[in-house]
Design a protein that fits this description.
Elements lengths: L2 E5 L6 E4 L4 H10 L6 E5 L5 H12 L3 E5 L2 E5 L10 H6 L6 H8 L2 E5 L12 H9 L3 E5 L2 E5 L7 E3 L5 H11 L5 E5 L5 H12 L3 E3 L5 E5 L7 E4 L4 H14 L3 E4 L3 H13 L3 E5 L2 E5 L9 E3 L11 H8 L5 E5 L8 H8 L3 E6 L2 E5 L8 E3 L3 H11 L5 E5 L2 H4 L5 H7 L3 E5 L9
Parallel strand pairs: 2-14, 3-13, 9-10, 17-18, 21-22
Antiparallel strand pairs: 1-22, 1-23, 3-5, 4-5, 6-8, 7-8, 10-12, 11-12, 14-16, 15-16, 18-20, 19-20
Helix pairs in contact: 1-2, 1-4, 1-7, 4-6, 5-6, 6-7, 8-9, 8-10, 8-12, 10-12, 11-12
The structure holds uridine-diphosphate-N-acetylglucosamine (UD1) and phosphoenolpyruvate.
The site of phosphoenolpyruvate has 9 residues, from helix 12.
Pathway: Cell wall biogenesis; peptidoglycan biosynthesis
EC number: 2.5.1.7
Function: Cell wall formation. Adds enolpyruvyl to UDP-N-acetylglucosamine.
C-alpha cells in the first residue's frame, strides 16, 4: 500500500490555486452521456475518481481524451447499454450515470452501488424519482434494470435534499417530454455547476442553487465547452492546514459564497479571512479557539465533507467542541485514528462526539479510513514533530489532486512512498 510520511512542524503557507471540484466533475462527466456530440470540459482535477468515470465512458463506447486538466468527450456513439459492475464497485458515486444513461437510451443496467465506509448510502430517492418520470425499474440480484417505457416530466418531492438523487433526476429529465419540477432539491454549488453545464449544451434547467428546480425537456443537445467550479472542500482542507500550523494562506480562484459555510467555522476558530476579488487571504489564529458545536447539514449548512478536517483543527483548540454528524451514519471513523495521534475524543452517541483540545499531538502510524478522514490525518500529522505515517492513501487520492506536491509547495515535509496498488475508492 502507498503511504505518506510526514515530518510536521513547518508552517503551511503561501499561495494556492485549486482545480475543479470532484463533486462537480463527476456528475458533469455523467452528463456528457446525454450529448450526442462533443463535450469539452476545463479545470478537471487529476484525481482517481475522474479516471474511474473516464473508464466508464470508454466502456460504453465514448471517445475520451484527458490532458492538462481538459477533458474532451465524444459521446456520439454509445455501444453498450450496461455499466460494468467493476466500476460501480470502485466508485459508489458512479450511480450518477444512471439518470444520463436512461435519458439517452431505452434501457440501462447498472449494479447497485451498495454502501461504503461512511454509511449505507441507499439510493431509494434516486429510484423513486426515476419511476415518477416513467422509468420502469427492476431490481434483481444486486443489479438495477431501467426500462424507458416512457420518460415524461413529473413533480418530484424529495423527503431529503439528496445531492445524488437531485442530480440523477436532473439528468434523466433533460430529455423527458414535458416539465419536471423538483421540490426540496439539494442546493449544493455543484448542482448549480451541473445546471450551467447542461444549459450550455442546450438543456432548459433553472432554479439550481435553490430548493426548487425546473427542467423543461428538450429533444436534442449540442457541442459544449465548460469550466468546472473550484473545489470548495479542497480549498477548505488547505485552509485548515494553514490554520493548524500558523501559516498565512492566499487562495486564488475562489467562488466566495461557496466558501462561506466553511469560512464561518474557521472564523469561529480564530482565523481571519479576507475576501478579495475571486480569492481569499487567511490569517491563522494565535490560539485555536474551540467551537462549541459543529453540526453538519445540507448546503448552505456546514458540509459533512469538511467535518473530519475541522475535527483535526479542534484537536488542538483551547477548549471543548461537540461534533454532530447528521448526514452520514458512520462518518467518525477518523476519530479512532486521531486518538492514536493523541487527540482527546469521546463518543456521546454514534453520531455525536466531544473533542477536548490538547497542546500537542504525537506521531504514530495511522490509516486513512476514507477520503476526508485521510485528509484529517494528514492535517494532524503536519503539526507533529517527528515522522507520522499515513497509509491507505488511495482514499485521499480519490479527491485531492497531488496533495503531497501541493503541501510541499506550501512548505510541508511530506513524501509519498509508492507501492503498486489498485484504485479502490469506496
Ligand atoms: C459525488 C458527490 O457529490 N458526493 C457528495 C454527495 O454524496 P451523495 O450524493 O451520495 O449524498 P446524498 O446527499 O445523496 O446523501 C445524503 C444522505 O442521504 C441519504 N440518502 C441519499 C439518497 C437516497 O436515495 N437515500 C438516502 O437515504 C444518504 O444515505 C446520506 O445519509 O453529497 C454528500 C452530502 O453533501 C457529500 O458528502 C458527497 O461528497
Ligand atoms: C463522501 C465523499 O465523496 P463520495 O460521495 O464520492 O464518496 C466526499 O467527497 O467526501
Amino acid at each position: 500500500m502507498s503511504k505518506y510520511t510526514i515530518r510536521g512542524g513547518n508552517k503551511i503557507e503561501g499561495r494556492l490555486a485549486i482545480r475543479g471540484a470532484k463533486n462537480s466533475i463527476l456528475p458533469i462527466i455523467a452528463a456528457t452521456i446525454l450529448n450526442e456530440s462533443v463535450s469539452t470540459i476545463h479545470n478537471v482535477p487529476d484525481i482517481s475518481d475522474v479516471y474511474v468515470m473516464i473508464k466508464i465512458l470508454e466502456s460504453i463506447g465514448c471517445k475520451v481524451k484527458y490532458e492538462d486538466g481538459t477533458l474532451v468527450v465524444d459521446s456520439s456513439n454509445i455501444s453498450s447499454m450496461e455499466i460494468d459492475e467493476h466500476y460501480v464497485r470502485k466508485m459508489r458515486s458512479s450511480i450518477i450515470v444512471m439518470g444520463a444513461m436512461i435519458g439517452r437510451l431505452d434501457y440501462t443496467k447498472i449494479s447497485h452501488p451498495g454502501g461504503c465506509a461512511i454509511g449505507s448510502r441507499p439510493i431509494d430517492l434516486h429510484l423513486k424519482a426515476l419511476k415518477e418520470l416513467g422509468v420502469r425499474i427492476e431490481e434483481d440480484d444486486g443489479f438495477i434494470k431501467c426500462y424507458k417505457d416512457k420518460l415524461v416530466g413529473s413533480t418530484i418531492n424529495f423527503e431529503f435534499p439528496s445531492v445524488g438523487a437531485t442530480e440523477n433526476t436532473m439528468l434523466a429529465a433533460v430529455k423527458a417530454k414535458g416539465t419536471t419540477k423538483i421540490y426540496n432539491a439539494a442546493r449544493e454549488p455543484e448542482i448549480e455547476d451541473l445546471q450551467d453545464f447542461l444549459n450550455s449544451m442546450g438543456a432548459k434547467v433553472r432554479g439550481a442553487g435553490t430548493n426548487y428546480i425546473e427542467i423543461e425537456g428538450v429533444e436534442t443537445l449540442h457541442e459544449v465547452e465548460h469550466t468546472v467550479i473550484p473545489d470548495r472542500i479542497a480549498i477548505g482542507t488547505y485552509m485548515v492546514a494553514s490554520a493548524m500550523t500558523g501559516g498565512y494562506l492566499e487562495v486564488d480562484r475562489v467562488i466566495i459564497p461557496h466558501m462561506e459555510p466553511i469560512s464561518d467555522k474557521l472564523r469561529a476558530a480564530g482565523c481571519s479571512i479576507e475576501y478579495k476579488e475571486n480569492g481569499l487571504v487567511m490569517t491563522p489564529p494565535k490560539i485555536i479557539q474551540a467551537i462549541d458545536l459543529v453540526r453538519t447539514s445540507p448546503h448552505p449548512g456546514f458540509p459533512t465533507d469538511m467535518q473530519a478536517q475541522l475535527m483535526s483543527l479542534m484537536a488542538l483548540s483551547n477548549g471543548t467542541s461537540v461534533f454532530h454528524e447528521t448526514i452520514f451514519e458512520n462518518r467518525f471513523m477518523h476519530c479512532a485514528e486521531l486518538t492514536r495521534l493523541g487527540a482527546n475524543i469521546k463518543y456521546i452517541t454514534e453520531n455525536i462526539c466531544m473533542i477536548k483540545g490538547v497542546a500537542n499531538l504525537h506521531n504514530a502510524k495511522v490509516k486513512s479510513p476514507d477520503l476526508r478522514g485521510g485528509a484529517a490525518l494528514i492535517l494532524a500529522a503536519l503539526t507533529i514533530n517527528g515522522e507520522t505515517e499515513v497509509s491507505n492513501i488511495y482514499h485521499v487520492e480519490r479527491g485531492y489532486e497531488n496533495i503531497e506536491q501541493t503541501l510541499r509547495s506550501l512548505g510541508a515535509d511530506i513524501l509519498k512512498v509508492e507501492n503498486l496498488e489498485k484504485i479502490k475508492g469506496c
